[in-house]
Known about the structure:
- This protein has a domain at 26-137.
- The chain has eight helices and no strands.
- It has helices at 26-37, 40-48, 60-73, 81-87, 89-94, 105-113, 119-138, 167-175.
Amino acid sequence: xxxxxxxxxxxxxxxxxxxxxxxxxxxxxxxxxxxxxxxxxxxxxxxxxxxxxxxxxxxxxxxxxxxxxxxxxxxxxxxxxxxxxxxxxxxxxxxxxxxxxxxxxxxxxxxxxxxxxxxxxxxxxxxxxxxxxxxxxxxxxxxxxxxxxxxxxxxxxxxxxxxxxxxxxxxxxxxxxxxxxxx
Length: 183
């Protein structure tokens, strides 16, 4: 990924004694630094930049940053909590935002409504790009991928003929309900 130009106006550049507003969310600053270091903002901007219809309001990458921090914080799961966060100077400074860069709950609701139901494919593309990017950095010898299956009670369904799957394997699956078949 390319070096990003998505810098916040309020950077934390030193640690010391202060009379300013403090926050108990110390881990949040490290999380924001991590988001910047993995350079996810330009990737999100390239895929979702056209959601923003005009130049008014907050940048798309900043909206995503606040959403990620909201998920990380976990204090509240309600979108109305963004109104409280907008008024919290300590929170704004810990995520390296000015007061006017903080989103309200109405802005977040409009942002979420701008996504269509087909955006899932776009998020999968982003995850794939990040996965490949990380592989190029780590260069592992072996990549071990695990498939997680979901087992459902399907006893009433019509059974397929035994020639589709080896008989012994099918009996093993039927005996142990915690395992799902992969076809």
